[in-house]
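User: Here's a structure from my thesis project, written as structure tokens. My advisor, Dr. K., wants to see whether a designed sequence matches the one we expressed. Can you design one independently, without my sequence as a hint?
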């Protein structure tokens, strides 16, 4: 394949394993990484919102806690 892989569905891509599915979603306002419930990899996404990018301003939201291994470096006040 050469060039971009394009899909115009809001829930464009699903990464599926035996226990969980991960859905990449673009609702035209936010880009989300969403999860299915355990045991339902083909099901709808659940209520967890672990990662979101606000498309108009680029702001990133981590919604279910954040674990960091190593150093956090910032260019402003944290």
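Assistant: Designed independently from the structure alone:
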């Amino acid at each position: 394949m050469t060039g971009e892989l394009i899909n115009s569905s809001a829930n464009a891509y699903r990464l599926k394993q035996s226990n969980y599915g991960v859905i990449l979603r673009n609702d035209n306002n936010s880009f989300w990484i969403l999860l299915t419930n355990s045991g339902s990899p083909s099901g709808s996404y659940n209520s967890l919102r672990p990662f979101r990018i606000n498309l108009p301003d680029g702001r990133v939201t981590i919604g279910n806690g954040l674990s960091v291994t190593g150093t956090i470096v910032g260019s402003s006040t944290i």
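When you compare it with your expressed construct, this may help: The mean pLDDT is 94.
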